[in-house]
Amino acid sequence: MRFLAPLLALAVALPLAAQPPKSYPSSWDPALMQRADVKAAMAHLEQQFPKQVEEWIALTEIPAKSGLEQQRGAYVKAVFEKEGLSDIRVDSIGNVTGVRKGTGGGPTIVIAAHMDVVFANDISRKVRRSGDTLFAPGVGDNTSNVANMLATLRTMNAVKFRHKGDIVFVGSTQEELGLRGFTWWLDHNPRPDLLIVPDGFYGSISYGALGIYWTKYVFTSPGAHTLASRGTPTPVRAVAEAIDKLYQLQFPALPDGAVMNIGQVHGGAIFNAVPQELYFTVDLRSPDPVLLDSLDRTITRITREVAERQKVGVRVEVDQKNQAGGTAKQLEGARAHPLVQTAVDINRFLGMTPGMPGAEEAVATGATDANPGVVRKIPAIAIGGSKSGGAHQLSEFALASTALPSTKLLYLLTATFTDGIKIVPPAKIIP
Hints:
Number of strands: 20
CATH architecture of the largest domain: 3-Layer(aba) Sandwich
Oligomer: single chain
Largest sheet: 8 strands, mixed
Number of helices: 11
């Protein structure tokens, strides 16, 4: 938005507290709750919630390590078939897709919940319940949202929900390996009008995309016996010098800057030899595409220079490059889409406040299957599932009761947009 110079100068001069609050367009109308089918849907979700939790537990106990989600995918496919979706298919990467056909003339909405978890299929996934808390690896991320998606589908059928636009349900795969499954899906399917991804923090809406680059830097040498190692070039010194130099890099921090982590250092086979190969990995993240690419080039340049100086070989292996969606300022247009504020308003209506300390109602970042949608300029958000903690840890847990308002959010958000985008005056105010 452009401002006249005098007005801009005045705004800068005002104290922060005096700045006018931003307003964003919303399509949420609480009058929707008075519609007979919506009333029936909310009642059905509440009545069937104990069964939803039972299914959630059952899904959690089905193995679904990233890349090995076939069993869980078969379960989701069976539900799609039982609920009468059309065009049901399992693609080459394992995504399970089904379509609830509309009457025509409305937007196509995709609901995509990733089925995979980070844990190996041979670990214990038995869910332990203590009061309202469920304990098990993967119970929160993202199994709760798979159950929420299936409950939403069943409820639509139970109340005979009619809509103009098609609603496409996707159980996606390999999200934990770099959003691979749903990125593939977007590359091989018609572009949706709206994308809703149940996978995020309770009570908070993500409308951005954190760029994520994973790169392995492999140093090589002919190797040598320890007795012949004096003065021999070694990958060990190269790795040590490169890592030291990388951690001396200076760049702004998140949310608008970047973060870098060296998560793995591996190599060498025996005590008494110069290793022939040694590598480290870099996990680089930023919402700013320019900064992300600049840092990536700098890291690679430093690594190659170190290899040359240490007289060893170097090989750069790119594992993934998920592009960045932009900073909050760069995503002002995305923030202004009614999909974002509508989700915020429904969260408020349902009494869902951000579950993470200091979390905002809407954030211009995210590391979910919404990311490839954001990068493609598709109106896309990630919405929260249950309140949970310990993600990617064996001690993971989730509060069962919080899945009910999250499922209501998914249902109401979808119902709001299936017949088109309408702006409900007045625009909602964000403090």
